[in-house]
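hey so i finally got around to running both of the ones u sent me last week. sorry it took forever, my laptop kept dying halfway thru and i had to restart like 3 times lol. anyway pasting them below in the order u listed, first the sequence line then the C-alpha cell line for each. didnt double check formatting much so if smth looks off just lmk and ill redo it

first one:
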Amino acid sequence: MEAVNGSDFGEVLEQCPPGLLLPFLEESNWRVSVRATLYIMGLLYCFLGIAIVADVFMGAIEIITSKTRKVYLASNTQGQDSEVVEVRIWNDTVANLTLMALGSSAPEILLSCIEIIGKNFEAGELGPGTIVGSAAFNLLIISAVCVGGIPEGETRSIRMIKVFGVTTVFSLLAYIWLLVVVAITSPGEVAVWEAVVTFMLFPLLVIVAFATDRGFICGVTREPGQKQIELEQPDGDKMISKRGFFKNGVLEKDALVAFVKEVKKYPGLSDEDAALLAAQKLVESQPHSKMWYRIGAVRNLSGGRKTQLKLTKKLKEVYDTINEHPEAPNLGPVPETDMSNAIIEFHATTCAVAENIGKFPITISRHGNIEETAKVRIESIDGTATEIEDYIPVDQIITFEPKELQKKVEIEIVDDNQWEPDEEFFLKLSLIPSEDNTNVQLGHMSIMEITILNDDEPGVLSFSKRGILVQESIGMARIPVVRTGGADGEVSVKWRTKDKSAFSGKDFIGGEGILTFQHTETERILEIPIIDDMEPEKDEHFEVELFEPMGGAKLGNIARLAVTITNDDAYNSITDHLMKMTNANMDAMRTHQDTWACQMRDAMNVNGGDLENATNIDYLMHFLTFGWKVIFSFIPPPSLLGGWPCFFVSLAMIGVITAVVGDLASIFGCLVGLEDSVTAITLVAMGTSLPDTFASKAAAVQEKHADNAIGNITGSNSVNVFLGLGLPWLMAALYHAANGTVFKVPSAGLGFSVVIYTAVALMAILLLMLRRQLSIFGKAELGGPFWPRVFSVCCLVGLWFLYVTLSSLQAYNIIKVHF
C-alpha cells in the first residue's frame, strides 16, 4: 500500500485502496486531516466494541467450561451415604489453551483470517504483524505492568511452573518454526505441508500441556491405590466439595453465621453491611480465571456492571482487618481468643474531638499474655478528613514492654479556621510479622474512628437503640453505649442488669459496674455473658440500665435497653434474611445474565443499574459505549442451551468488527504514511491487548500467585501463531494448491520481525527466571524490592521499544535484510 505524501497534509496526492468493507462513502475529495481524524476515532471506538463483545463471548466460555458432572465417593464410615462431589468436565489447562485463549486472541486470529480472505487468499501484512506485535506487547508490556504493579513489599510467583515451562517452550518454538517456514524451507512461500504442521502444533501443545498438568510428563506418577479424585487439586481439575461453603451454588447457613458473628464484633455494622462483607468474602474465596479479571476490566472501562462490590472506607478497613485477623479466615468456625497470646486493641472504637484541640492522646490496651514484649503498628487512614489538611498522619510502631498494659499515642488535629462539617478519619492497628513477635494478635477493636467536630461539652450518654436480639449460643452480648453532644473530659456512668423473663445466673451473667469514657471517646462496648443451656425455650429477655452519670455528663433518652435471647427457630428467620441479602449481592456480581431482559437492562443503565456507586467516569464511558451495549444485548444469553448460541453469535460479531478494524487501520496507516506492518505492531496490537493489560494488573494485585497475571501469556502467544497464522495459511495454501498456484508470503518483513521478537522474548523470559531464583528480586516473577523491580520494568519496556524501533526501521528499508 502506498502512503499519502506531500507537504500539504490536507491535500490527497495518492489514492488509498479500499478495504473489505470501507469506505462506505466517496471520501477521495475530503481533506486528509479530516479523514485521518475520523479513521483513528473510529479505530479506537471499534477497539471498545471488540472489548465489550468479548465480555459477552467470555461469559459464554465461562458457562461452557464450568459444566460439571456428579461423582460419588464411597464413605470410610460404615452406614454413611456416599459423598457426592461435582467435578468440572473441562480441565483447567485445556480450557485455558483452547476456549479461553480463543476468547482473548479472537480479534487477532479473526483479523488474520479475514485479511487473507479479503485479499483473495493472498498474504497481507496487517494480520501477521498484529500476531507478532501482540505477542511482544503481551510478553513485555503486560509483564512490566504486573512486575511494577504489585504493592510494595509483596511478591507473586507462578504456581503451575511446569505448565508455564511447556507453553514457554512452545511459544519460542512457534516463532522459530515461523522463521523456518518463511525464510529457510521455502523462502517467500508457504507449502500445504508447512501450513498443516503449523496448524497441528496447536493440538500438540494442548496434549503436552495437559499431560504435564496431570503429572504424566515431568511429574510424579500416582501411588497405587491413591484416590483418583482429589478435592481442589492445585494442578488438576477443580472440584466443588459439598462439604465446603457452597451447595449447588448456594451459601451454607452455618458458614455465613460464623462469618457474620465475627463481623458483628466490630461495632456500628448493620445486617446489610455484614451481608455485603460476606458476599465480598465469598467472591474472593472462589477461584478466578484470567477471563474473570478481563470481564471485570472491560466493565470498569465501559461503565458496566461491576464484578466486585464497592465497599465504603470503613467497611473496607473492617474487611481488611478480618482478613488479617486469625479469626474466620475462610468463613469457617470462629476460634476462641488464645489467651497465650498478647491481645492488643484500642480502648474504644470511636472518639470525637474539637477541631481546635491540637494534640490529644488515644489509648491502646493489652491483655492476655503480658509477660513478653509485643509490637503493633498504628497508622492513620483518610475518611472525609484528609491527612495534612485536617490531621497529621500517623504511622509508627508501638512496643509494649513486659507487664505494660496500656500505651498512649498522641494525635494532632489541624485547625484551619474555616467552617467545615464534621469529618472523620480512622486509626488502624496491624500486626508486624517477625520472629520475635509471633505471640501477638489483634483484638476486636483494631479500628478506631475519630470524628472532628466543633463541640467541647462532656456529652450525653445513652444506648444507641432500645433493644437488641442475640442468639442463645452467641457467648457474649456486646451492647454499644454512645456519647453524643460532646466528648470533652473523662466521664463515667453506672450500669446494672435487671431480670425479666431471663434470669441472671441461669440465662445470663448479670450484675452492675461502671463504664468509663476517656477524654474524646464516643463509644464503649458493654459485654454481658449469655449462658447456653442447650434446652429448647421460648424467647427470654432482660434489661440493662444506665444511671448516675459522672464527670458532667448527662443521661440521654435511651437509658434502658432490652436484650432478647432467641432460640434457634427465631434466629433462623434472621439468618435466612442474611442469606437472601448475601445471595442478592452475589448475583449482582455475576459475569453474565440469564435473560435478554436482564441483558438489556444492564445495557441501558450505567453501572448495570447500581447508580449509587456509579462514578463520573462510569457515566462518561457508559455514554460513549451505549450503542455497542445495546447492540450486543441482543446476543443470546450465555445461559441459553449451554452457552453455545452465545458463543457463536458473539464470535461472529467479533469477526464483523474485526473486519472493520482491519480496514480502518489499513486506510489510516495509508493516510498518515504508516506501513501496514508498523500499524499492526503498534496501534492494532496495543488496541486488542489493552483489556488484557488491565485484567493482568488486577489479577496480579488480587491473586496470591502470578498464574492469572502472566502465567498464560506464553500459551496465548503460541495459540496466536498456531491458529492466527496456521488456520489462514492452511486455507490459502489449499486454495492455491487447488488452483495450481503458489501461496506467496513476503519473508523479509515478517522474518526480521520474528527474529527480533524471538531475541527480546528470550531475554524477557531469562529475566523472569532470574527473578524467580535470585533473592535480590524477592525470588518471585512479580513484585519484590523497589529498585530491582524498577530495573526489571525498565528492561522489559526497553525491550519492547527496541522491538518496535528495529521492526519499523526495517519496514521503511532503513535497515535492509535478506532472507
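and the second one:
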Amino acid sequence: MSKDLQPTVDPTKMGLGRSIAVLTSGGDAQGMNAAVRATVRVGIYTGAKVYFVHEGYQGLVDGGENICLATWESVSMMLQLGGTVIGSARCKDFRTREGRMMAACNLVKLGITNLCVIGGDGSLTGANEFRTEWSGLLVDLVRAGKITEEEAKKSSHLNIVGIVGSIDNDFCGTDMTIGTDSALHRIIEVVDAITTTAQSHQRTFILEVMGRHCGYLALVTALACGADWVFIPEMPPDDGWENHLCRRLSDQRARGSRLNVIIVAEGAICKDGKPITSDQIKKLVTDRLGFDTRTTVLGHVQRGGTPSAFDRILGSRMGVEAVMALLEATPDTPACVVTLSGNHAIRLPLMECVQVTKEVTAAMAQGRFDDAIKLRGKSFENNWNTYKLLAHINPPDAKSNINVAIMNIGAPCAGMNSAVRAAVRMGIIQGHSMLAVHEGFDGLAQGQIEPLTWTSVSGWTGKGGSMLGTKRTLPGKRLEEISQNIAKFNIHALVIIGGFEAYVGGLELVQAREKYEEMCIPIVVIPATVSNNVPGSDFSIGADTALNTITSTCDRIKQSAAGTKRRVFIVETMGGYCGYLATMAGLAAGADAAYIFEEKFDIKDLETNVEHMVEKMKTTVKRGLVLRNESCNSNYTTDFIFNLYSEEGKGIFDCRKNVLGHMQQGGTPTPFDRNFGTKMGAKAVLWLTDKLKECYRHGRIFANTADSACVLGMRKRALTFQPLAELKEDTDFEHRIPKTQWWLKIRPIMKILAKYDIKLDTSEHADMEHVIKKRSFLGK
C-alpha cells in the first residue's frame, strides 16, 4: 500500500462488504494452519466474511459444504498442528475449463471475489490461470444460465494472493517457504539419532531427504550436521566423483573419525542428468572401501509433526500480509505472492516468481548449473559456498603464521559450538593457527589458551551449551593480564562469540587500545544469546532454539488445560530486558498477552487484559495463555500478575503459573541456529583474514581504526560488519538492549490474532516489488 493513502484507511473497515476464501492445495506443509488461522482472524478483524475451502481446488469445484463460513473460534488450537486442517488434494477437475467454470460458479453464488491460495508453485500457477480466465468464465456462466447478469456484475473481478507452503523451499523470490524449517527439524532429529548409533559401530550412513528437484533441504542438513558429502540436483558432482568420495571417506577415518555421513537429495543427478541414488552410493562405499554402510530414506516423516516456532510465525505474518494485499488490490494489480526477504514480509508478482522458478529447472536441464545456483537466490548460494569451503579436508601446506583466538562470553546458548567449529575450520583452511580460550575473559587473563585442530571440533554442530566454557566477566579489571597473554601467545586476531557481555567486552578492549598496544588487533563479535539483545544484529545465535523450547512447552501447557477448561496460564520467559522471546513465543504459541519491558503497561492495561480473558471464557475457547518477560516490570512481577488474574477471575477461571528458567538455554541447537552459527563463524574468519592483510605494516599487525573491531550481524537482508564504536549510539547500556528493535513492529499482529481491538499500522505495508530486480541482488 502506498504511504500517501494511509491516513484515509481504517484497517478494521477495509473488508466491510467483502468476502475472502482461503484454501490449501498440493502437498501439505507444517505451518499452513498458522497461515489459515491468521488469514481467517485478520479477515474477520477487517470486517470481511471469510470462508474455508475444504480439500483444496477439489472443494472449490465441488462446492456445497466444502465452502463454509469460518468463525474466530473455528481456528482455535490450530497453531500447533502439522499438515492442514482444512484438507488438501491434487485436483484433476480444476485443470479443465469445465472444472474452473464450476469453481467460479460456486464463488459467485457466495459473493467471494478474493482468494488466498496456500500451496506450491503448481497450485499458485493454477490460481493465476483461474484469475486470468475469470471474466470469460463469467460470460459462459451467464450464457449457460448458471448465474444472472447481476451476479456477474457484482463479482466482475477476482483478486488472488498466494502464500508459498512447501517443505522443498523451491520457490524463487522467498528466503523460506512455510514448512521448510519444520522439515529441517525432523531431518536433524533423525541425523542426531543416527550419529550416536553410527559412532558406536564405526558406520557410514547415507541419508536421503526430500525436496523434489531442489537441493535446499539436503544442503542445509549437510551444513548443519557437518556431513562428509552432499549430493544436490543444482550442482552435480564432477566426473570421477566416485574416487573423490571414497578418498574423502578414507581420509576422515584416518583422522580418527568413527562415522561418515552422506546426504542425498531425492532429485540428485550426475552431470549427464542420470539419477544418483542412495543404493548406488551404498554399493560404491561397500564394494570399494568395505565400510559397514546403512541407508535411511526419510520419506514423509519430513512433512509430519508439529510446526517449528519459525514456521508458525512465518505463517502468521504471511496470513496477515495476504489479507492486506487482497483488500488493497485493484483490477490492475497483478496476482501477487507474499514472501519473506530477510525478516521482511514483501509482495512480489506471482508469475514473475513462477517464471524464475521454471528458469532454475531449465538451467539444470541445459547443464547450466552455476546459473541454477544463482537463480535459487543469495541464501542458497551462500549456503553452497560455505559448505564447499568447509568440506575441504586437506588444509594448505603454506602456513600464514597468524594466530587467531576464539572465545565464548556470557551465558551459554545452543549454536555457539557451531560458530566455533566453522571459525576453527575456516581458519585452518586459510592457513592460520587457531587457539581456544577457555572460560571467557578470565581464561584470557589466566592464560587458559590451547591450540585447536580440525578434528578437535568434530561433531560440535549438534552440541548445545559452550564446549570452550564461558563466563560473564568483563575484561575491564584485567586488561593488564589480558594484554600480556595476547603478547605471550602471539594472538593476532580475536573472535568473541557471545551475548551482550561479548559486545561490551569488545568495546572495553577497543577503548583499551589507547593504553595497550597489544589490543590493536582485529576483533569480531558474533552475537550468540537466547535474549537476542546484541546491537547490530536482528538475530542472535541461540534465540531460535530458546524460542522453540518455549513454544513447545506452551503447547503442552495449553494442552493440559484442554480437559479442565476455564484455566489461564501465566508463563515467565527469559530475555533480560529484551522482550523478543516473550513476543515471538506469544505469536508462535497463540498467547493472549505478552508483557515486555519495551512496551510500557500499567494497571489499566492489566485490567483490560483480565476483562478480555473473562469475555474469552464465554466463548467455546475456555483457556488462556499469558507470557511475561522476566524483567518487564519490577513491580508487576510474575507473582503479582498471577495473583491479579487469580483474584479477578474467581468463579470464572483459575490460574497456574510457570517459570521456564534455564531450560531455555539448554538443549541441542535447532537447524537454524546450527546453520546460522556455521555461516557466521566462517564469514567472521574470512573477514579477519582480509583485515589482517590491511593492518599488516612494517612486519607486524597494527589495527587501531574503528572498523577493525566489528559486530557481525544479520541486518534485514544480509550479514554485515558494523564497527563496535558506531553501535554505541543505538545501545541502551542500562537495560542491555538495542534502542531500535525490528520485531516490535510485529507485536500488533499477536494482539489482533488474540482478538484485541487495536489499530494495525498499515503504513509499513510494502508496494509490490519485482523479482527481476531482486534477482540482480540475489545474483551478486
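quick thing i noticed on the 2nd:
The chain has a mean pLDDT of 92.
anyway thats it, ttyl
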